[in-house]
Amino acid sequence: MTLHIQLTAIASCFMAVAAFAQDSIPFSKRQNLGSVRHVEIHEASGLVASRVNARHFWTHNDSGDAARIFLIDDSARHKATFYLEGIHACDWEDIGVMERQGVNYLVVGDIGDNAGRRAVVDVHIFEEPLLSRSGPIIDTIPNAAIRSFALRYEDGSRDAESLFFDPIDERLYVVSKRELRVGLYYTELPKGLKPVDTLVLRREATLPLTFITAADISPDGTELLMKNLVSVFYWTRKRGESVADALSKPAVVLPYLPEPQGEAIAFSYEGKGYYTLSEAVLGMDVVFYFYNRL
Length: 294
Prior knowledge:
The protein has helices spanning 3-18, 243-247, and strands spanning 27-36, 44-49, 56-61, 68-73, 78-84, 94-100, 103-110, 121-127, 137-141, 147-153, 160-165, 172-176, 183-187, 199-206, 214-217, 223-227, 232-236, 252-254, 264-267, 273-277, 286-293.
């Protein structure tokens, strides 16, 4: 990304922040939980709290890496690496979780498209690995255990870095990135994760935000987070509200100090707060931060 584009994006982000009225802030300032010392985690782009490994988190690198995910604990220590057999990683940007019939799945979004030229993007879904022994573990998820789906935007190619699976309406959501007012898109995954032709991402709403680099939904579906380069946005969702209805309300701008290429955010599984993770830029550490719920 050129310096001119970066400055333009940052300026747009500040303008977007100015559009929100500040409400009471339900989270504290950040806490440094530690630096990621595992040298292979150098461009963390996605983050999600594990459902089966308590106080652990899944992350992955941005474009240019192998098809693999990493498990870290809540002190940023690397615990495991899992490779996805037979999968090509084009531009992995986010990771989410999905529960179906008592089984927890990870959803990896190969949804990056800087030039806006990909006819389809992809998501890869597989059962969340359970850490069965002390690490560091290097293992492989067999191709037969992975379900991959091609996704096509109904209104043309989009660059995106954010996705989440809503546990209430059971839809997969993707948030576009580069528009001055980004789009909220959804698709419905087939029952049983049966192979299907290309799924359509339908535009559900337009949001007064730009350059969104990460998003997450709380485990019970009642809270939503998004972030761009300079701010974190937070919404609560009332009973009976759709995701689009919840996001139509003014966001609360949460405590956040910009990180070097900060592109990852996740709720705590226990509901205690939210976490962010940055990239290794110009020799700076990849730092794991926590914002505690007040």
